[in-house]
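B., you asked whether I could sanity-check this one before it goes into the benchmark set. Here's the sequence:
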Amino acid sequence: MKFYNREPEMNYLDKILKQTKHSSQLVIVYGRRRIGKTRLLNEFIKYHNGINFFVEQKDEKLLLVELESEINQLGLDLPPVFKTFDDFFNYLFNYLGKSRESFIFVFDEIQNFNKINSGFFSKFQKYWDKYHNDTHIMLVCIGSIIGMMKKIFLDQKQPLFSRAQHTINLKRFDPFETSKIIIDHGITDGKTILELFGMLDGIPKYLQYLDMYWEGDVHKFINDLFLTDLAPLKEEGKNVLIQEFGSLQSGYFTILECISKGKRIPVEIANKTTIRLNTVNKYLHDLTTYYEIIFRTYPITEDPFKSRNVRYFLKDNFFRFWFNFIYPSQSTMKRVKEEFNRYLGVIFEDVCAEFIRKKGYEKVGKWWNKEIEIDVMGIGTKNILFGECKWSNNPIDIDSYFKLKEKTNTVSLKVKNIQFALFSKTGFTDRLVELSNEEKIKLYDVDDVLLNK
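And here's what the prediction gave me:
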Protein backbone atom coordinates (compact mmCIF):
# COMPACT_ATOMS: atom_id res chain seq x y z
CA MET A 1 0.00 0.00 0.00
CA LYS A 2 1.30 3.44 -0.84
CA PHE A 3 2.36 5.84 1.91
CA TYR A 4 -0.60 8.01 2.92
CA ASN A 5 -0.94 11.37 4.58
CA ARG A 6 1.50 11.74 7.48
CA GLU A 7 2.44 15.26 6.48
CA PRO A 8 2.28 16.83 9.99
CA GLU A 9 4.53 14.09 11.43
CA MET A 10 6.98 14.28 8.50
CA ASN A 11 7.22 18.06 8.88
CA TYR A 12 7.81 17.71 12.61
CA LEU A 13 10.56 15.15 12.08
CA ASP A 14 12.17 17.48 9.57
CA LYS A 15 12.19 20.32 12.12
CA ILE A 16 13.79 18.03 14.69
CA LEU A 17 16.48 16.98 12.23
CA LYS A 18 17.38 20.64 11.62
CA GLN A 19 17.91 21.08 15.36
CA THR A 20 20.64 18.41 15.33
CA LYS A 21 22.94 21.02 13.78
CA HIS A 22 23.22 22.38 17.32
CA SER A 23 22.94 19.21 19.43
CA SER A 24 21.66 15.63 19.29
CA GLN A 25 17.91 15.17 19.60
CA LEU A 26 16.12 12.25 21.29
CA VAL A 27 12.68 11.44 19.88
CA ILE A 28 10.05 8.99 21.15
CA VAL A 29 7.57 7.62 18.62
CA TYR A 30 4.91 5.37 20.10
CA GLY A 31 1.46 4.06 19.23
CA ARG A 32 -0.48 0.82 19.02
CA ARG A 33 0.73 -2.01 16.81
CA ARG A 34 0.00 -1.76 13.06
CA ILE A 35 -0.38 2.03 13.16
CA GLY A 36 2.55 2.73 10.81
CA LYS A 37 5.42 3.88 13.04
CA THR A 38 8.11 1.92 11.21
CA ARG A 39 6.76 3.00 7.82
CA LEU A 40 6.79 6.64 8.92
CA LEU A 41 10.47 6.53 9.89
CA ASN A 42 11.46 4.49 6.85
CA GLU A 43 9.82 7.06 4.59
CA PHE A 44 11.58 9.87 6.43
CA ILE A 45 15.00 8.21 6.26
CA LYS A 46 14.62 7.75 2.49
CA TYR A 47 15.45 11.43 2.06
CA HIS A 48 18.15 11.68 4.71
CA ASN A 49 21.21 9.95 6.14
CA GLY A 50 20.27 7.22 8.58
CA ILE A 51 19.30 3.69 9.53
CA ASN A 52 16.30 1.99 11.13
CA PHE A 53 17.38 -0.92 13.30
CA PHE A 54 14.76 -3.39 14.52
CA VAL A 55 15.50 -4.64 18.04
CA GLU A 56 14.70 -8.32 17.77
CA GLN A 57 14.48 -10.39 20.94
CA LYS A 58 17.63 -12.44 20.53
CA ASP A 59 21.00 -12.97 22.19
CA GLU A 60 22.87 -9.69 22.69
CA LYS A 61 25.93 -10.86 20.75
CA LEU A 62 23.80 -11.84 17.76
CA LEU A 63 22.05 -8.48 17.92
CA LEU A 64 25.40 -6.67 17.86
CA VAL A 65 26.54 -8.70 14.85
CA GLU A 66 23.33 -7.74 13.06
CA LEU A 67 23.81 -4.09 14.02
CA GLU A 68 27.37 -4.18 12.65
CA SER A 69 26.14 -5.69 9.41
CA GLU A 70 23.40 -3.09 8.85
CA ILE A 71 25.73 -0.15 9.49
CA ASN A 72 28.36 -1.71 7.20
CA GLN A 73 25.84 -1.53 4.36
CA LEU A 74 26.07 2.26 4.53
CA GLY A 75 29.63 2.02 3.13
CA LEU A 76 31.21 4.28 5.76
CA ASP A 77 34.96 4.94 5.92
CA LEU A 78 35.27 3.48 9.42
CA PRO A 79 33.72 -0.01 9.62
CA PRO A 80 32.02 -0.74 12.96
CA VAL A 81 33.22 -3.42 15.38
CA PHE A 82 30.77 -4.02 18.21
CA LYS A 83 31.65 -6.43 20.99
CA THR A 84 29.42 -4.61 23.48
CA PHE A 85 26.88 -1.82 23.41
CA ASP A 86 29.61 0.47 24.79
CA ASP A 87 31.32 -0.03 21.44
CA PHE A 88 28.12 0.85 19.63
CA PHE A 89 27.41 4.04 21.59
CA ASN A 90 31.02 5.18 21.22
CA TYR A 91 30.78 4.65 17.46
CA LEU A 92 27.38 6.36 17.29
CA PHE A 93 28.41 9.51 19.12
CA ASN A 94 32.14 9.81 18.44
CA TYR A 95 32.07 8.86 14.76
CA LEU A 96 28.56 9.15 13.28
CA GLY A 97 27.61 11.99 15.61
CA LYS A 98 30.61 14.14 14.76
CA SER A 99 30.38 13.97 10.98
CA ARG A 100 29.37 17.09 9.06
CA GLU A 101 25.99 15.67 8.09
CA SER A 102 23.42 14.90 10.79
CA PHE A 103 22.75 11.19 11.21
CA ILE A 104 19.42 9.51 12.05
CA PHE A 105 19.50 6.33 14.09
CA VAL A 106 16.26 4.53 14.92
CA PHE A 107 15.80 1.85 17.58
CA ASP A 108 12.63 0.13 16.36
CA GLU A 109 10.77 -1.59 19.26
CA ILE A 110 13.32 -0.36 21.78
CA GLN A 111 11.32 -1.80 24.70
CA ASN A 112 12.61 -5.26 23.66
CA PHE A 113 15.90 -4.42 25.37
CA ASN A 114 14.13 -5.13 28.66
CA LYS A 115 14.31 -8.82 27.70
CA ILE A 116 17.76 -8.68 26.09
CA ASN A 117 19.88 -6.68 28.52
CA SER A 118 18.32 -4.99 31.52
CA GLY A 119 21.34 -2.67 31.82
CA PHE A 120 20.98 -1.27 28.32
CA PHE A 121 18.96 1.79 29.33
CA SER A 122 21.48 2.83 32.00
CA LYS A 123 24.20 2.59 29.38
CA PHE A 124 22.04 4.61 26.99
CA GLN A 125 21.65 7.32 29.66
CA LYS A 126 25.39 7.42 30.35
CA TYR A 127 26.39 8.06 26.74
CA TRP A 128 23.48 10.39 26.01
CA ASP A 129 24.26 12.62 28.98
CA LYS A 130 27.96 12.67 28.09
CA TYR A 131 27.76 13.36 24.36
CA HIS A 132 24.41 14.70 23.18
CA ASN A 133 25.28 18.40 23.56
CA ASP A 134 28.33 18.13 21.27
CA THR A 135 27.08 15.73 18.58
CA HIS A 136 24.60 15.70 15.69
CA ILE A 137 22.49 12.56 16.05
CA MET A 138 18.73 12.32 15.67
CA LEU A 139 18.12 9.30 17.89
CA VAL A 140 14.59 7.92 17.50
CA CYS A 141 13.07 5.31 19.81
CA ILE A 142 10.00 3.53 18.42
CA GLY A 143 7.75 1.41 20.62
CA SER A 144 4.43 -0.41 20.18
CA ILE A 145 3.91 -1.38 23.82
CA ILE A 146 2.53 1.91 25.07
CA GLY A 147 2.65 1.13 28.79
CA MET A 148 6.26 -0.01 28.50
CA MET A 149 7.31 3.08 26.54
CA LYS A 150 5.77 5.32 29.17
CA LYS A 151 7.63 3.46 31.90
CA ILE A 152 10.99 3.71 30.10
CA PHE A 153 10.79 7.42 29.33
CA LEU A 154 8.28 8.93 31.79
CA ASP A 155 8.90 7.01 35.03
CA GLN A 156 11.04 9.09 37.39
CA LYS A 157 12.77 5.94 38.61
CA GLN A 158 14.02 4.98 35.14
CA PRO A 159 17.41 6.05 33.70
CA LEU A 160 15.97 7.77 30.60
CA PHE A 161 13.40 9.83 32.48
CA SER A 162 13.16 13.38 31.01
CA ARG A 163 15.88 12.74 28.40
CA ALA A 164 13.63 12.82 25.33
CA GLN A 165 13.03 16.28 23.89
CA HIS A 166 10.29 15.21 21.47
CA THR A 167 7.36 12.80 21.55
CA ILE A 168 5.09 11.65 18.71
CA ASN A 169 2.04 9.63 19.71
CA LEU A 170 1.13 8.29 16.28
CA LYS A 171 -2.64 8.07 15.77
CA ARG A 172 -4.84 6.20 13.33
CA PHE A 173 -6.16 7.95 10.22
CA ASP A 174 -9.40 9.82 10.83
CA PRO A 175 -12.60 8.70 9.02
CA PHE A 176 -12.05 11.07 6.10
CA GLU A 177 -8.42 10.10 5.48
CA THR A 178 -9.50 6.46 5.78
CA SER A 179 -12.28 7.10 3.28
CA LYS A 180 -9.71 8.29 0.71
CA ILE A 181 -7.65 5.12 1.23
CA ILE A 182 -10.72 2.90 0.79
CA ILE A 183 -11.80 4.83 -2.30
CA ASP A 184 -8.35 4.12 -3.78
CA HIS A 185 -9.32 0.44 -3.55
CA GLY A 186 -12.32 1.07 -5.79
CA ILE A 187 -14.95 1.28 -3.03
CA THR A 188 -16.91 4.46 -3.55
CA ASP A 189 -20.16 4.27 -1.56
CA GLY A 190 -20.36 5.79 1.90
CA LYS A 191 -22.26 2.87 3.45
CA THR A 192 -19.54 0.34 2.63
CA ILE A 193 -16.79 2.75 3.68
CA LEU A 194 -18.50 3.20 7.06
CA GLU A 195 -18.81 -0.58 7.44
CA LEU A 196 -15.10 -1.07 6.73
CA PHE A 197 -14.10 1.79 9.02
CA GLY A 198 -16.25 0.21 11.72
CA MET A 199 -14.08 -2.92 11.76
CA LEU A 200 -10.62 -1.84 10.49
CA ASP A 201 -10.62 1.74 11.78
CA GLY A 202 -7.98 3.97 10.18
CA ILE A 203 -5.17 1.51 10.90
CA PRO A 204 -2.85 1.20 7.87
CA LYS A 205 -1.87 -2.45 8.35
CA TYR A 206 -5.49 -3.60 8.55
CA LEU A 207 -6.51 -1.52 5.55
CA GLN A 208 -3.86 -3.37 3.53
CA TYR A 209 -6.02 -6.49 3.75
CA LEU A 210 -8.36 -4.88 1.24
CA ASP A 211 -5.74 -5.72 -1.39
CA MET A 212 -5.90 -9.43 -0.58
CA TYR A 213 -9.42 -10.13 0.66
CA TRP A 214 -11.87 -7.59 -0.73
CA GLU A 215 -14.21 -9.12 -3.30
CA GLY A 216 -17.08 -6.64 -3.12
CA ASP A 217 -19.04 -8.19 -0.22
CA VAL A 218 -18.65 -6.97 3.37
CA HIS A 219 -19.88 -10.18 4.99
CA LYS A 220 -17.49 -12.35 2.97
CA PHE A 221 -14.69 -9.93 3.86
CA ILE A 222 -15.49 -10.32 7.57
CA ASN A 223 -15.64 -14.08 7.24
CA ASP A 224 -12.29 -14.33 5.44
CA LEU A 225 -10.55 -11.84 7.71
CA PHE A 226 -11.91 -12.85 11.12
CA LEU A 227 -13.90 -16.08 11.16
CA THR A 228 -12.23 -18.86 9.14
CA ASP A 229 -9.58 -21.12 10.64
CA LEU A 230 -6.84 -19.29 8.74
CA ALA A 231 -8.30 -15.79 9.13
CA PRO A 232 -5.36 -13.38 9.68
CA LEU A 233 -7.16 -11.18 12.25
CA LYS A 234 -8.91 -13.92 14.21
CA GLU A 235 -6.43 -13.74 17.10
CA GLU A 236 -5.18 -10.22 16.45
CA GLY A 237 -7.06 -8.48 19.25
CA LYS A 238 -5.83 -10.98 21.84
CA ASN A 239 -2.26 -10.92 20.54
CA VAL A 240 -2.00 -7.12 20.56
CA LEU A 241 -3.45 -6.79 24.06
CA ILE A 242 -1.41 -9.64 25.58
CA GLN A 243 1.70 -7.93 24.27
CA GLU A 244 0.56 -4.69 25.91
CA PHE A 245 -0.55 -6.15 29.24
CA GLY A 246 2.26 -8.71 29.47
CA SER A 247 -0.14 -11.63 29.90
CA LEU A 248 -3.77 -12.62 29.37
CA GLN A 249 -5.18 -10.24 31.99
CA SER A 250 -8.71 -11.54 32.38
CA GLY A 251 -9.86 -8.44 34.29
CA TYR A 252 -8.83 -6.07 31.53
CA PHE A 253 -10.31 -8.29 28.82
CA THR A 254 -13.59 -8.65 30.70
CA ILE A 255 -13.96 -4.89 31.15
CA LEU A 256 -13.06 -4.13 27.53
CA GLU A 257 -15.65 -6.64 26.33
CA CYS A 258 -18.23 -5.13 28.67
CA ILE A 259 -17.58 -1.58 27.40
CA SER A 260 -17.69 -2.70 23.78
CA LYS A 261 -21.17 -4.13 24.34
CA GLY A 262 -22.63 -0.94 25.77
CA LYS A 263 -21.88 -0.94 29.51
CA ARG A 264 -20.07 2.38 29.80
CA ILE A 265 -20.63 3.50 33.41
CA PRO A 266 -18.39 2.10 36.21
CA VAL A 267 -21.34 0.89 38.30
CA GLU A 268 -22.88 -0.88 35.28
CA ILE A 269 -19.54 -2.50 34.49
CA ALA A 270 -19.12 -3.68 38.08
CA ASN A 271 -22.64 -5.13 38.15
CA LYS A 272 -22.23 -6.87 34.80
CA THR A 273 -18.78 -8.32 35.51
CA THR A 274 -19.17 -8.90 39.29
CA ILE A 275 -15.79 -7.19 39.73
CA ARG A 276 -15.69 -4.89 42.77
CA LEU A 277 -16.30 -1.22 41.92
CA ASN A 278 -12.96 -0.07 43.36
CA THR A 279 -11.17 -2.62 41.19
CA VAL A 280 -13.19 -1.60 38.14
CA ASN A 281 -12.19 2.04 38.69
CA LYS A 282 -8.53 1.05 38.95
CA TYR A 283 -8.74 -0.95 35.71
CA LEU A 284 -10.52 1.94 33.97
CA HIS A 285 -7.80 4.34 35.10
CA ASP A 286 -5.04 2.05 33.78
CA LEU A 287 -6.81 1.42 30.47
CA THR A 288 -7.36 5.17 30.02
CA THR A 289 -4.10 6.81 31.12
CA TYR A 290 -1.47 4.07 30.98
CA TYR A 291 -2.49 1.88 28.03
CA GLU A 292 -4.60 4.47 26.11
CA ILE A 293 -7.08 1.82 24.96
CA ILE A 294 -10.25 3.52 26.21
CA PHE A 295 -11.25 7.13 26.76
CA ARG A 296 -13.39 8.89 29.32
CA THR A 297 -16.13 11.24 28.16
CA TYR A 298 -18.83 13.38 29.75
CA PRO A 299 -21.78 15.55 28.61
CA ILE A 300 -20.40 18.31 26.41
CA THR A 301 -21.77 21.12 28.58
CA GLU A 302 -20.12 19.87 31.79
CA ASP A 303 -16.69 20.63 33.24
CA PRO A 304 -14.45 17.60 32.52
CA PHE A 305 -12.61 18.06 35.82
CA LYS A 306 -15.76 18.22 37.92
CA SER A 307 -18.26 16.01 36.09
CA ARG A 308 -19.09 12.63 37.62
CA ASN A 309 -21.49 11.84 34.81
CA VAL A 310 -18.87 9.92 32.85
CA ARG A 311 -18.88 7.14 30.30
CA TYR A 312 -16.11 5.03 28.84
CA PHE A 313 -15.60 4.00 25.22
CA LEU A 314 -12.97 2.00 23.36
CA LYS A 315 -10.81 4.30 21.24
CA ASP A 316 -10.27 1.80 18.49
CA ASN A 317 -12.98 0.47 16.16
CA PHE A 318 -10.96 -2.67 15.53
CA PHE A 319 -11.09 -3.57 19.23
CA ARG A 320 -14.77 -2.60 19.37
CA PHE A 321 -15.52 -5.00 16.54
CA TRP A 322 -13.23 -7.75 17.83
CA PHE A 323 -14.70 -7.73 21.35
CA ASN A 324 -18.25 -7.57 20.00
CA PHE A 325 -18.02 -10.40 17.51
CA ILE A 326 -14.87 -12.49 18.03
CA TYR A 327 -14.04 -12.57 21.76
CA PRO A 328 -14.46 -14.60 23.94
CA SER A 329 -16.27 -17.31 21.98
CA GLN A 330 -15.91 -17.68 18.26
CA SER A 331 -18.64 -15.83 16.42
CA THR A 332 -20.73 -17.00 13.49
CA MET A 333 -21.59 -15.16 10.32
CA LYS A 334 -25.26 -15.50 11.29
CA ARG A 335 -24.68 -13.44 14.42
CA VAL A 336 -22.59 -10.87 12.55
CA LYS A 337 -25.38 -10.39 10.00
CA GLU A 338 -27.97 -10.03 12.75
CA GLU A 339 -26.05 -7.53 14.89
CA PHE A 340 -23.62 -5.69 12.62
CA ASN A 341 -26.11 -2.98 11.69
CA ARG A 342 -26.84 -2.25 15.37
CA TYR A 343 -23.13 -2.16 16.12
CA LEU A 344 -22.50 0.40 13.36
CA GLY A 345 -24.92 2.89 14.93
CA VAL A 346 -22.34 4.08 17.47
CA ILE A 347 -19.62 4.16 14.81
CA PHE A 348 -21.83 6.40 12.67
CA GLU A 349 -22.38 8.77 15.60
CA ASP A 350 -18.62 9.09 16.10
CA VAL A 351 -18.01 9.77 12.41
CA CYS A 352 -20.76 12.41 12.37
CA ALA A 353 -19.12 14.08 15.37
CA GLU A 354 -15.82 14.22 13.45
CA PHE A 355 -17.72 15.70 10.49
CA ILE A 356 -19.18 18.43 12.71
CA ARG A 357 -15.76 19.13 14.23
CA LYS A 358 -14.39 19.86 10.76
CA LYS A 359 -17.11 22.48 10.38
CA GLY A 360 -15.25 24.62 12.88
CA TYR A 361 -17.17 24.12 16.14
CA GLU A 362 -14.99 24.70 19.19
CA LYS A 363 -16.46 21.82 21.19
CA VAL A 364 -18.05 18.67 19.81
CA GLY A 365 -19.50 15.75 21.73
CA LYS A 366 -22.60 14.06 23.14
CA TRP A 367 -25.04 15.27 25.75
CA TRP A 368 -27.13 13.21 28.11
CA ASN A 369 -28.94 13.13 31.42
CA LYS A 370 -30.96 10.39 33.12
CA GLU A 371 -33.84 10.63 30.65
CA ILE A 372 -32.57 11.69 27.25
CA GLU A 373 -29.52 11.67 25.02
CA ILE A 374 -28.42 13.84 22.11
CA ASP A 375 -26.18 12.00 19.65
CA VAL A 376 -23.95 14.92 18.68
CA MET A 377 -23.61 18.58 19.59
CA GLY A 378 -21.34 21.29 18.28
CA ILE A 379 -20.79 24.43 20.34
CA GLY A 380 -19.34 27.56 18.74
CA THR A 381 -18.86 31.12 19.96
CA LYS A 382 -22.17 32.30 18.54
CA ASN A 383 -24.10 29.17 17.63
CA ILE A 384 -24.89 25.65 18.72
CA LEU A 385 -25.78 22.61 16.63
CA PHE A 386 -27.90 19.69 17.80
CA GLY A 387 -27.68 16.50 15.77
CA GLU A 388 -29.44 13.14 15.53
CA CYS A 389 -27.79 10.16 13.80
CA LYS A 390 -29.80 7.24 12.38
CA TRP A 391 -28.09 4.14 11.00
CA SER A 392 -31.32 2.61 9.77
CA ASN A 393 -32.60 1.04 6.55
CA ASN A 394 -35.53 3.46 6.59
CA PRO A 395 -35.30 7.12 5.55
CA ILE A 396 -35.55 9.64 8.39
CA ASP A 397 -38.98 11.28 8.70
CA ILE A 398 -40.12 14.51 10.37
CA ASP A 399 -40.81 12.85 13.74
CA SER A 400 -37.04 12.54 14.31
CA TYR A 401 -36.64 16.28 13.87
CA PHE A 402 -39.45 17.16 16.28
CA LYS A 403 -38.11 14.71 18.90
CA LEU A 404 -34.65 16.25 18.60
CA LYS A 405 -36.08 19.74 18.89
CA GLU A 406 -37.97 18.73 22.02
CA LYS A 407 -34.81 17.29 23.59
CA THR A 408 -32.99 20.59 23.22
CA ASN A 409 -35.32 22.27 25.69
CA THR A 410 -33.52 20.32 28.44
CA VAL A 411 -30.09 21.78 27.60
CA SER A 412 -29.37 25.12 29.28
CA LEU A 413 -27.11 27.22 27.05
CA LYS A 414 -27.13 30.97 26.48
CA VAL A 415 -26.85 30.80 22.70
CA LYS A 416 -29.41 32.42 20.43
CA ASN A 417 -28.43 30.85 17.11
CA ILE A 418 -29.55 27.21 17.28
CA GLN A 419 -29.13 24.86 14.34
CA PHE A 420 -30.32 21.29 13.77
CA ALA A 421 -28.73 18.49 11.75
CA LEU A 422 -29.99 15.02 10.90
CA PHE A 423 -27.63 12.31 9.70
CA SER A 424 -28.94 9.25 7.87
CA LYS A 425 -27.74 5.99 6.40
CA THR A 426 -30.52 5.88 3.79
CA GLY A 427 -31.67 9.44 3.25
CA PHE A 428 -34.82 11.37 4.15
CA THR A 429 -38.52 11.40 3.34
CA ASP A 430 -39.86 14.00 0.94
CA ARG A 431 -41.80 15.78 3.65
CA LEU A 432 -38.69 16.11 5.83
CA VAL A 433 -36.74 17.53 2.88
CA GLU A 434 -39.55 20.05 2.34
CA LEU A 435 -39.60 20.96 6.04
CA SER A 436 -35.83 21.33 6.10
CA ASN A 437 -36.06 24.07 3.51
CA GLU A 438 -38.57 25.96 5.64
CA GLU A 439 -36.81 25.57 8.99
CA LYS A 440 -33.19 25.44 7.73
CA ILE A 441 -32.53 21.92 9.00
CA LYS A 442 -29.23 20.47 7.79
CA LEU A 443 -29.63 17.01 6.25
CA TYR A 444 -26.62 14.76 5.62
CA ASP A 445 -26.61 11.21 4.38
CA VAL A 446 -23.61 8.91 4.79
CA ASP A 447 -22.24 9.87 1.36
CA ASP A 448 -22.37 13.56 2.33
CA VAL A 449 -20.39 12.78 5.48
CA LEU A 450 -17.70 10.47 4.11
CA LEU A 451 -17.46 11.37 0.43
CA ASN A 452 -17.75 15.15 0.82
CA LYS A 453 -20.49 15.29 -1.83
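One thing to flag: DSSP finds 21 helices and twelve strands in the chain. Otherwise nothing jumped out at me.
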